[in-house]
Write a structure and sequence with these properties.
Layout: H1 8-35, H2 43-60, H3 66-95, H4 102-127, H5 134-150, H6 156-173, H7 179-201
Length: 204
């Protein structure tokens, strides 16, 4: 008795259609990821960044030497980077969004070069004995970096960057503004305000 082969072509066609549909879905998801905004920016992370900056500003304002002041803000930079990395990774995993995906990679490519330029400017200003320009420069450069990276993120991010850039420019133009006050308002207050808005409107 010969085996019934009537279902073989149908099963083959079904498998082929299934594979093609899976490939199409992967392509669509990849295209959306490349074109879409990076939504894993953590509002709660921004709030924690702001709080840590307020603590840093409190201690920095009470230092008596340049090296101690730089140590406080250098430590804050490391703490802030750690907070940002942890909270962004947690939110990305919760949302099923790869950090190395299209929009996340573009955000980093926009953010990192500007921050590197800020590091070079920091050394240049210290060599020129122009410590009083550091707070305004840090705020302006960080704001520019956030704007550049925020183009590939949710709308509040570039707005936060523009606010920091404006505050940094004001601090540079008005030397009478105490540097630690400007840093507390920018790195502290603005992060907290926009962090609350992001947490409420963009999933934490």
């Amino acid at each position: 008795m010969l085996p019934d082969m009537s279902t073989a072509p149908q099963n083959t066609n079904t498998d082929a259609l299934h594979d093609r549909a899976a490939d199409d879905l992967r392509y669509i998801r990849s295209a959306m990821e490349r074109a879409g905004a990076f939504t894993a920016v953590s509002g709660r992370g921004y709030i924690l960044l702001g709080l840590s900056a307020l603590v840093a500003a409190f201690f920095a304002a009470r230092t008596t030497t340049l090296s101690a002041w730089l140590t406080v803000w250098g430590a804050e930079l490391l703490i802030a980077a750690t907070i940002a990395a942890i909270t962004t990774t947690q939110k990305a995993r919760r949302m099923g969004m790869p950090l190395a995906g299209g929009s996340g990679r573009k955000l980093l490519l926009g953010f990192t070069p500007v921050m590197a330029a800020g590091g070079a400017l920091t050394f240049a200003l210290l060599q020129a004995d122009a410590r009083e320009l550091l707070p305004g420069m840090w705020l302006a450069v960080y704001g520019a970096a956030v704007v550049a990276g925020g183009v590939y993120s949710i709308r509040p991010v570039p707005i936060l960057g523009a606010s920091l850039l404006a505050l940094g420019s004001l601090a540079l133009l008005v030397p009478s503004i105490p540097g630690d006050v400007a840093l507390a308002v920018g790195f502290g207050g603005l992060h907290i305000v926009w962090g609350i808005l992001i947490a409420r409107n963009h999933g934490g």
